[in-house]
Amino acid sequence: MRPSCLSVFSNDKKLFTQQVKYEPSCVSIHPGQIEIAVGDSQEQNVYIYNLEGDTLKESDKLSCKGAITQVAYSPDGANLGVGDAGRYVHVFNTTDRKVVHQGWSFHTARVNCLAWSPDSRHMASGSLDTNIIIWSMENPNKRIVIKGAHKMSQITSLAWLNDNTVVSTGQDSCIKQWTLTLH
């Protein structure tokens, strides 16, 4: 495998580059700390780093069920969502790194994207299977499934406009807005 690197930039200036022994696939920055989560596209790991001066110091490694396709910190910083190629969505507590929800598996194909609601109570996942799933942090057995959200087209990106409205894009070149009734 060819060596891979992580680079840190500030104001269009490269601060440093660091080699890693895995292939980075995605990244998310903690909203309240100098902590960075990086997914591994070949293995089933998420690497947690702290930015210390001019280097990234690895502080933890989280294991999942498939190659990592997406990582996303919740807006309140309490949780880290992880999507994988094995169709699973995982949630880890950022304080103790314990699993909050292990392997939500209602997608039928690779998870492409994740997005947290502004209040951090819900997370949306989009998949190669054309579906969007809204997960509840308060009631993990409760979910809203938007089947065929982009018919015959994988979901490529998600964003929340407010606590009840999700916007999705698909490979069909469409942008769709979904108003949800969340209890």
Described by the principal axes of the CA atoms, the overall outline is: globular
Average per-residue pLDDT, rounded, comes to 93
Taking the alpha carbons of the first and last residues, their distance comes to 48 Å
Read across the widest sheet, the strand sequence of neighbours is: 3-4-5-6
Number of helices: 0
Task: Catalogue the unreliable spans.
Answer: none
Biggest sheet record = 4 strands, antiparallel
Output the structural class.
Answer: mainly beta
Strand-residue fraction? over 45%
Count of DSSP strands: 17
Q: Could you explain the architecture of this structure?
A:
By secondary structure, the protein is mainly beta. It is 0% helix and 58% strand. It is built from no helices and 17 strands. The strands form 5 sheets. A 4-stranded antiparallel β-sheet has the order 3-4-5-6, with no helix packed on it. Strands 7-8-9-10 form a 4-stranded antiparallel β-sheet, with no helix packed on it. Strand 5 (45-52) and strand 6 form a beta hairpin. The radius of gyration is 16 Å and the shape is globular. The N and C termini lie far apart (48 Å).
